[in-house]
Amino acid sequence: MNILEFREVSKVYNQEKSGIHDLSFSVKQGEIVALAGPSGSGKTTALNIAAGLDEFCDGEVRLLDRSLQNLLPQELLNLRRNDVGFIFQSYNLFPVLTVLENVEYPLALKGVRFYERIEKAKRCIEEVGLAGLEDRMPSALSGGQQQRVAVARALVTEPRIIFADEPTANLDAVTAEKLLLLFRELNDKQGTTFIFSSHDPRVLKFADRVIVLADGRLAH
Amino acid sequence: MNFYFLRLCWKNIWRNRRRTLITVNAIGLGVMALVFLRNYYDSFHEQVIHNVIRYHSGHVAVAIKNFEKNSATQLYIKNSAPLIQWLNSQKNTLAISERVVFSGLASSARGSTNVMVMGVEPASEAKVTDFARKLIRGSFFDDGKDKSIVLGVKAAETLNAEIGSKIVVLTQGVDGSVGNELFWVSGIFDTGSDADKSLAFIRLSEARAILSLPLQSSHQVAVTLKEEDELSLFRQSFDALSTKEAEVQMLSWKELQRPVVAMIELDRAVNRMLMFLILGVAALGIANSILMSLMERTKEFGVMLAIGTAKEEVIRMVIVETLLLTGVGVFLGNLFGVLVTAFFNQVGFDLRWLTSKDFVIQGAVVQTVSYPVARISNSLVVTTVIVILALAVSYFPARQASRLTPMKALRSH
Ligand SMILES: Nc1ncnc2c1ncn2[C@@H]1O[C@H](COP(=O)(O)OP(=O)(O)O)[C@@H](O)[C@H]1O
Ligand SMILES: [Mg+2]
Fold first, then answer.
1. Does the beta-carbon distance from A154 to B307 stay under 8 Å?
2. Candidate CATH numbers 3.40.50.300, 3.90.25.10, 3.40.1050.10, 3.20.20.140; the one for domain A2-218
3. Which of A150, B126, B215, B375 has most Cβ atoms within 10 angstroms of its Cβ?
């Protein structure tokens, strides 16, 4: 079953310059898929569109059996809140919140009560291998640790799909490898689908499948 | 919004500690100043009113019509007995003092001065006004002698008079004759006001004699009520009084002392203006502070939106941050406003620190020192106004927040 489907999707930024052209691909439930390609090839654009963060001009995007362009703002919000996780290249943790509080955030949004929230967040922090660092501030963590917190934050609502835009770009090779192994582990345990972008061949090998982009199209 | 987000907002306002402290200070100082000012003015005004009542008119004066426009001695109540009887029968009445009032020249061997002479029943007058309690020498007609006069300390100085000194009072009687009588100083009062140089008391019967007024006649009856709020009730029953002489009217202190009332009103208007000015500036400081912190966090708001925060929730957080910032300032401002009030309640706030002039308002004594009392109502008014203003100015950051989209916000740096 396809969890994500791009059907001839185009996104034009300026008149000439475009992010992606007639892009079609699909991702199955439970896959780990990598979007590869050089800088400027349209990876970020594709991921943002797939996660419902950005608009597109042409074609159709289906996420979790729903056509994104037909969704009401409230439905899109619920999708982001409940079914989708997002991990950013630069971690983007909330700097005023502790590790635990950062991971609590999506649960608090959903109105999950205090004890359940703490329990779930702690379990997630443990899963990403950061047990014991719950009360640290993000600034007191290494890049790899921060990205793990971001993973825990994306994971805590148990979304069916997690998008990660160049999650390893700011990490050294060893740490990057560990992060991908974590994706693999979570995928094995919980069946979470991962779609990540990267142009680093060393991390691409951890994907089940690699979709290569060039100039906003599928490369062959 | 649950506690989690409240805490997030709280942490966010302290991100730029210095900016927040500056804003909190501005709000706090403004609120403190206004809370103290309002408390101070309330006590000052009460003092003015109290003094007007206790040193001058009482709550109410019943007098002949047009007496306040034309205080000629010829306008008198010919037979005050029924009126006095009626006044005494009123349950609102605390005390009354029947008076004959005239202006005259007081002379001693050493000098002379113009005085307002009040002929009173000493015991009654002592219940209506405070002069009897402000004596620095002698007594308020306690010596039992006839032809006693009680003077203010300044007049006594001018006349070089002491207890037992002889004073001649000269005036014109109602029949045009010259009224001329010799008195002995029985008491000297010191109130700190105009009255000290311009007011003298003699016995009612002797005042009637000087002016050649008939027995049982007088110029006015000053009344002190049990509660000032009962003024309108008192007026109602007075207006309903059918037996009163047609030419008699009742004047409340507010009518007798229009300039005092006007002064208080003016003070209040200026205070209100000052309040909106100060709090308006503080509110702009709040808006500026929140707007700046919003701009610095654009990317963070993008992340919030991207991971499922609704735009309304973002706007709500911005408004809550505004209110928290305001709340801290308001709390500190009220705290210090009350503390400053309490401090001056103990040591007294003296207007002489600000001006060397004496304060005499409508001839009534106004002590320059007042002891302000912290009133919840004053704190509430100031707090309400600043909170409303803060909510109004939070419109600007909220509008800014409402324009955010996850993509726009994420791309910003
Ligand atoms: N906001 C934008 N405005 C204009 N052009 C953009 C914008 N974002 C991306 N692009 C263009 O779209 C193309 C794809 O960019 P992007 O999706 O960021 O690629 P990648 O993530 O693979 O580096 C590039 O040519 C880039 O210049
Ligand atoms: Mg990119």
1. yes
2. 3.40.50.300
3. A150
What is the percent of chain B where pLDDT is above 90? 52
d(C-alpha B352, C-alpha B369), whole Å = 8
Taking a C-beta distance cutoff of 8 angstroms, is the pair A164, A119 a contact?
A: no
Integer angstrom CA distances of residue B76 from B81, B177, B245, B388: 13, 17, 12, 55
Cβ A97–B300 below 8 Å, yes or no? no
Give the pair of three-digit tokens for residue B22: 């500056």
Q: Which of B11, B307, B313 sits opposite A86 (nearest CB)?
A: B307
Which chain A residue shows the shortest CA-CA distance from B306?
Answer: A53
Burial of residue B61 (CB within 10 Å: 0-12, 13-18, 19+) is: buried
Which pLDDT band, with edges at 50, 70 and 90, does A174 fall under? confident
Q: Check if the beta carbon of residue A136 is closer than 8 Å to that of residue A98.
A: yes
Q: How many CB atoms lie within 10 A of CB B176?
A: 8
How far out from the chain centre does Cα B196 lie? 22
pLDDT of A212 > 90? The answer is yes
Pocket test for ligand 1, best of A15, A44, A198 (most atoms within 8 A of CB): A44
User: In angstroms, what is the span from residue A40 Cα to ligand 2's centroid?
Assistant: 7
Closest approach of B402 to chain A, Cα-based (Å): 14
**Nearest partner of B268 among B381, B390, B389, B392, judged by Cα:** B381
Q: Does A108 touch chain B (CB under 8 A)?
A: yes
d(CA A189, CA B10): 38
CB B169 within 8 A of CB B108: no
Task: Dump pLDDT digits (tens) for B313-359.
Answer: 999 999 999 999 999 999 999 999 999 999 999 998 887 777 766 66
Q: What beta strand segments (E) does B209-299 contain?
A: 220-225, 248-252
CB atoms within 10 A of CB B24: 24
Q: CB distance from A80 to chain B under 8 Å? A: yes
Ligand 1 neighbours by CB, cut-off 6 Å: A 13-14, 17, 19, 37, 39-45
Do B303 and A109 make contact, defined as CB atoms within 8 angstroms?
no
Q: What percent of chain A has pLDDT over 90?
A: 60
> Looking at residues B184-202, what average pLDDT do you find?
89
Domain boundaries, chain A: 2-218
Listed in order, strand segments (DSSP E) in B73-133 are 93-107, 112-120
Which ligand lies nearest to the CA atom of residue A11 in the structure?
1
Mean pLDDT of A171-180: 87
Cβ distance B307 to A82 less than 8 Å, yes or no, reads no
Q: pLDDT per residue over B120-177, tens digit each?
A: 999 999 988 888 988 999 999 987 889 999 999 999 999 999 999 999 999 988 888 8
- pTM for the whole structure: 0.80
The average pLDDT across B47-75 equals: 74
Type of residue numbered A108: A
| pLDDT band of B382, cuts 50, 70, 90 | very high
pLDDT band at B108 (very low <50, low <70, confident <90, very high): very high
Q: B77 - beta bridge partners?
A: B218
Give the number of the atom of ligand 1 that is nearest the alpha carbon of residue A14: 4
How high is the ipTM of this complex?
0.93
Spacing, Cα A176 to ligand 1 middle (Å): 24
* Between B41 and B356, the higher pLDDT residue: B41
